[in-house]
UniProtKB/TrEMBL annotation:
Leader sequence segment: none
Bias (Basic and acidic residues) ranges: 12-29
Entry-linked Gene3D superfamilies: DksA, coiled-coil domain
Protein name: TraR/DksA C4-type zinc finger protein
Zinc finger (dksA C4-type): 94-118
Residue ranges, annotated region (Disordered): 1-29
Length: 128
Protein backbone atom coordinates (compact mmCIF):
# COMPACT_ATOMS: atom_id res chain seq x y z
CA UNK A 1 0.00 0.00 0.00
CA UNK A 2 1.19 3.45 -0.86
CA UNK A 3 0.29 4.90 2.53
CA UNK A 4 2.27 2.26 4.45
CA UNK A 5 5.23 2.92 2.20
CA UNK A 6 5.06 6.62 2.97
CA UNK A 7 4.91 6.10 6.72
CA UNK A 8 8.03 3.95 6.59
CA UNK A 9 10.09 6.14 4.31
CA UNK A 10 12.95 8.05 5.90
CA UNK A 11 12.67 11.73 6.68
CA UNK A 12 13.91 14.01 3.94
CA UNK A 13 15.67 17.33 4.54
CA UNK A 14 12.44 19.11 3.63
CA UNK A 15 10.56 17.07 6.22
CA UNK A 16 13.07 18.09 8.86
CA UNK A 17 12.66 21.72 7.83
CA UNK A 18 8.90 21.40 8.16
CA UNK A 19 9.18 19.73 11.56
CA UNK A 20 11.59 22.43 12.73
CA UNK A 21 9.20 25.19 11.60
CA UNK A 22 6.26 23.54 13.32
CA UNK A 23 8.16 22.92 16.53
CA UNK A 24 9.46 26.50 16.70
CA UNK A 25 5.97 27.81 16.09
CA UNK A 26 4.58 25.52 18.77
CA UNK A 27 7.27 26.57 21.26
CA UNK A 28 6.52 30.26 20.62
CA UNK A 29 2.79 29.69 21.01
CA UNK A 30 3.26 27.75 24.26
CA UNK A 31 5.61 30.38 25.68
CA UNK A 32 3.11 33.18 25.07
CA UNK A 33 0.27 31.03 26.43
CA UNK A 34 2.30 30.42 29.57
CA UNK A 35 3.04 34.12 29.95
CA UNK A 36 -0.65 34.97 29.57
CA UNK A 37 -1.68 32.28 32.07
CA UNK A 38 0.87 33.61 34.57
CA UNK A 39 -0.46 37.13 34.15
CA UNK A 40 -4.04 35.94 34.53
CA UNK A 41 -3.14 33.98 37.68
CA UNK A 42 -1.39 36.87 39.36
CA UNK A 43 -4.21 39.23 38.43
CA UNK A 44 -6.63 36.80 40.06
CA UNK A 45 -4.49 36.48 43.18
CA UNK A 46 -4.12 40.25 43.46
CA UNK A 47 -7.88 40.74 43.30
CA UNK A 48 -8.83 40.43 46.99
CA UNK A 49 -12.11 42.27 46.83
CA UNK A 50 -14.31 39.21 46.40
CA UNK A 51 -17.30 37.73 48.16
CA UNK A 52 -17.49 33.99 48.93
CA UNK A 53 -19.03 33.00 45.60
CA UNK A 54 -16.42 34.94 43.66
CA UNK A 55 -13.67 33.44 45.79
CA UNK A 56 -14.89 29.95 44.92
CA UNK A 57 -14.97 30.78 41.24
CA UNK A 58 -11.52 32.30 41.55
CA UNK A 59 -10.11 29.16 43.19
CA UNK A 60 -11.54 27.07 40.37
CA UNK A 61 -10.12 29.34 37.71
CA UNK A 62 -6.72 29.27 39.40
CA UNK A 63 -6.84 25.46 39.44
CA UNK A 64 -7.76 25.39 35.76
CA UNK A 65 -4.97 27.81 34.99
CA UNK A 66 -2.50 25.68 36.93
CA UNK A 67 -3.60 22.49 35.16
CA UNK A 68 -3.30 24.16 31.78
CA UNK A 69 0.06 25.65 32.73
CA UNK A 70 1.36 22.21 33.75
CA UNK A 71 0.21 20.70 30.46
CA UNK A 72 1.67 23.56 28.43
CA UNK A 73 4.95 23.38 30.34
CA UNK A 74 5.24 19.63 29.73
CA UNK A 75 4.49 20.06 26.03
CA UNK A 76 6.95 22.94 25.78
CA UNK A 77 9.67 20.76 27.33
CA UNK A 78 8.98 18.01 24.79
CA UNK A 79 8.92 20.56 21.98
CA UNK A 80 12.28 22.01 23.01
CA UNK A 81 13.71 18.50 23.38
CA UNK A 82 12.53 17.66 19.86
CA UNK A 83 14.25 20.79 18.53
CA UNK A 84 17.42 19.59 20.29
CA UNK A 85 17.05 16.20 18.60
CA UNK A 86 16.66 17.96 15.25
CA UNK A 87 19.96 19.75 15.84
CA UNK A 88 21.62 16.58 17.09
CA UNK A 89 20.39 14.60 14.08
CA UNK A 90 18.42 12.09 16.13
CA UNK A 91 14.99 13.47 15.28
CA UNK A 92 12.45 10.83 14.29
CA UNK A 93 14.32 8.09 16.14
CA UNK A 94 12.44 6.41 18.98
CA UNK A 95 14.08 7.24 22.33
CA UNK A 96 13.12 3.82 23.68
CA UNK A 97 13.89 1.25 20.99
CA UNK A 98 16.06 3.34 18.65
CA UNK A 99 14.04 2.51 15.55
CA UNK A 100 12.75 5.18 13.18
CA UNK A 101 9.35 6.47 14.26
CA UNK A 102 8.15 6.70 10.69
CA UNK A 103 7.81 9.79 8.56
CA UNK A 104 4.08 10.15 9.05
CA UNK A 105 4.28 10.11 12.84
CA UNK A 106 7.33 12.35 12.95
CA UNK A 107 5.49 14.97 10.95
CA UNK A 108 2.11 14.56 12.62
CA UNK A 109 3.56 14.62 16.15
CA UNK A 110 7.00 16.19 15.83
CA UNK A 111 7.41 16.46 19.62
CA UNK A 112 6.82 12.73 20.17
CA UNK A 113 9.95 10.98 21.41
CA UNK A 114 8.66 7.41 21.07
CA UNK A 115 7.45 5.32 18.16
CA UNK A 116 3.79 4.24 18.17
CA UNK A 117 4.60 0.83 19.62
CA UNK A 118 6.70 2.12 22.52
CA UNK A 119 4.20 4.91 23.24
CA UNK A 120 1.41 2.33 23.49
CA UNK A 121 3.50 0.06 25.70
CA UNK A 122 4.34 2.94 28.01
CA UNK A 123 0.69 3.97 28.25
CA UNK A 124 -0.35 0.41 29.03
CA UNK A 125 2.46 -0.11 31.53
CA UNK A 126 2.53 0.73 35.25
CA UNK A 127 2.47 4.41 36.13
CA UNK A 128 0.94 5.37 32.79
ZN1 LIG B 1 10.13 2.56 19.94
Amino acid sequence: MRRAETSQSPLRPRDLEEARARLSEQADRLRSQLTRAEEAASALRADCDLDAADAGAKAMTLRELRTRTEMDTALLERTVAALDRLRAGSFGICAECGRPQGRERALALPHAELCVQCAEEREAGPGG
